[in-house]
Amino acid sequence: MSEAAVKTNAAADAEERELTDGFNLIIDALKLNGLNTIYGVPGIPITDFGRMAQAAGIRVLSFRHEQNAGYAASIAGFLTKKPGVCLTVSAPGFLNGLTALAHATTNCFPMILISGSSEREIVDLQQGDYEEMDQLAIAKPLCKAAFRVLHAADIGIGLARAIRAAVSGRPGGVYLDLPAKLFGQVMDAEAGKKSLVKVIDAAPAQIPSPESIKRALDVLKSAKKPLIILGKGAAYAQADDAIRQFVEKSGIPFLPMSMAKGLLPDTHAQCAGAARSTVLKDSDVVMLIGARLNWLLSHGKGKSWGDAPKKFIQIDIEPKEMDSNVEIVAPVVGDIGSCVNALLSGMGNWPAAPADWVGAVKAKRDDNVAKMAPRLMNNNVPMDYHGALGVLRTIVKERPDAILVNEGANTLDLARGIIDIYQPRKRIDVGTWGIMGIGMGYAIASAVETGKPVLCVEGDSAFGFSGMEVETICRYNLPVCIVIFNNDGIYRGTDVNSSGSSDPAPTVFVKGSRYDKMIEAFGGVGVNATSPDELKRAVNAAMDSGKPTLINAVLDPAAGSESGRIGNLNPQSKLKKK
Ligand code: ADP
Ligand code: MG
Questions:
Q1: Domains of the chain and CATH, by start
Q2: Which residues, by Cβ under 5 Å, contact ligand 2, an ion?
Q3: Closest CA to 38 of 63, 19, 16, 14
Q4: In principle, which of 203, 250, 309, 430 could form an S-S bond with 167, CB 3.0–4.6 Å?
Q5: Ligand 1 atom nearest residue 297's Cα
Q6: Cβ atoms within 10 Å of 371's Cβ, excluding its own
């Protein structure tokens, strides 16, 4: 046979054999596993991948910065119990996404960061490839697991491993490294199809031991001043009915951590949210459900926990969480749904919670709520936090299915206490790190994943970290209403530069900024609100219309305190020069 004839035969062969490639296999693998949304930023080497994924029916949301796409993916994971997918370009894009991946891991949210990367051969010899970086090595310490796929035939297994690592046990962030060359690798379509894996039972139930359940119930029954603390692990678990039944059957006061608010309504008779200091100090037995004794709970010891001896019961999927800060006398290891159901069936005829304790907690709570009430009704101009939040509190009460996104310092601390939440997973915020910058990413993912209206309550400083994504919100026409509590700066806008130079102090911004004009640039609705009444009208209009809206709520620049409620964590010099 002539050389030409051999070539023609080979071409005919290839035409007969159907082929697939890395691009298509990744898309097919995602879809096979129900991962139908990608949050990311396009660029080399994943631009065409994004286009093809969109054409194949995956919803591809393009952001302006990878960190925001990553935060979106992380909260999508929290809201859906499926890993949120974030897609980035190599080195700088990857690094931008990494903050969010670490955040997902810290907060126990399932997420997969997929990054394109440069060629192994060149990277490993450090020959200076385009965007050269050993991404896998860098990601490893910041996530639960990290994988790299080099061969198209391994894409199915690679994604399966990533999904399992993200959602099983304690959820977290997973990194999946896809070198540029992988995308174009061609293989036989039939073999490719066979190589894909549909993950079965990705997060298997973890049943607690009967002994641990009995031990926990015995300790709880012995309590004179019991307390239940619900954390965001309990919200994540989506065991809402079982948790509510358990809390109600026990009759025990409960304290929701901020993202667990709404598992039972904040207005529930047993809610001790407004009596937080009292219940932490005076309780004798504390049952933690999906909450860690980290800094947010003062590590379970010290002044805020009082002097009385305390016994802790802890329900968590992660065995190593037990005794992390103080002794846990009754560890219950398993998934929250299984654990709480086991507790419920073991309760039998449960005695009423001690009436004097329940009464004392309720009295304290009612007292605090009553004290706060008049401040929330003030109509001051310029607005203070309480006047503005009083309005938003009523709006959320009237629209309990809206999702509240909240970040800032004072804006966060005060909104957390003031705005009651009525349904599970309706309040999402700065999480374990107290991170600033989650705002727009969270808002976008909430709207996309749930289809519900979103109300974003943002400090002016916090908003700045993700503000450019208002363009993204407008582009996808999402029902997001952003309220910026504008007090001209970080903590407040009244700081002065003591050096005598003309620079502003490090914590102040341009006075009288009009953030509302930012969204107008992209076709959204901008409103400048100077009084609680104006604020109320603007938010209601936004929530009714579903149009992307940004409200600049003008606050008194003197409103707000340094570092909000965590000023104790911010070292202050005693030797400051005047
Ligand atoms: P919070 O900040 O609200 O107190 P944390 O993030 O500190 O909540 O704690 C959440 C805890 O919930 C983590 O220790 C995590 O292991 C646990 N968790 C997450 N999901 C589940 C689940 N499905 N079942 C049991 N525990 C879970
Ligand atoms: Mg501010």
A1: 19-195 (3.40.50.970), 210-363 (3.40.50.1220), 377-562 (3.40.50.970)
A2: 459-460, 487
A3: 63
A4: 203
A5: 4
A6: 10
Q: Which of 435, 391, 423 is nearest to 534 (CA)?
A: 391
Structure tokens at 344: 């419920």
Distance 558 CA to ligand 2 centre (A): 10
pLDDT in tens, 289-319: 999 999 999 999 999 999 989 999 999 999 9
8 A C-beta contact, residue 217 and residue 343: yes
- Asked whether residue 577 carries a pLDDT value surpassing 70, the answer given is no
pTM strictly above 0.70: yes
CA of 485, nearest ligand number: 2
Tens-digit pLDDT profile for residues 216-237: 999 999 999 999 999 999 999 9
Q: Is the pLDDT of residue 386 over 80?
A: yes
Structure tokens at 305: 């926990």
Ligand found nearest the CA of 409: 2
Name the residue among 519, 435, 533, 508 with its Cα closest to residue 481: 519
Q: Which residue's CA is the nearest one to ligand 1's atom 20?
A: 233
* Mutate-to-test residue for ligand 1 from 82, 108, 263, highest number of ligand atoms within 8 A of CB: 108
- Best probe residue, ligand 1, of 316, 324, 339, 412 (max atoms within 8 Å of C-beta): 316
The set of protein residues with a Cβ atom below 6 angstroms from ligand 1 is 107-108, 170-171, 231-233, 236-237, 257, 259-260, 290-292, 294, 296, 316-318, 321, 335-336, 432
| Rounded Cα distance, 114 and 38, in Å | 10
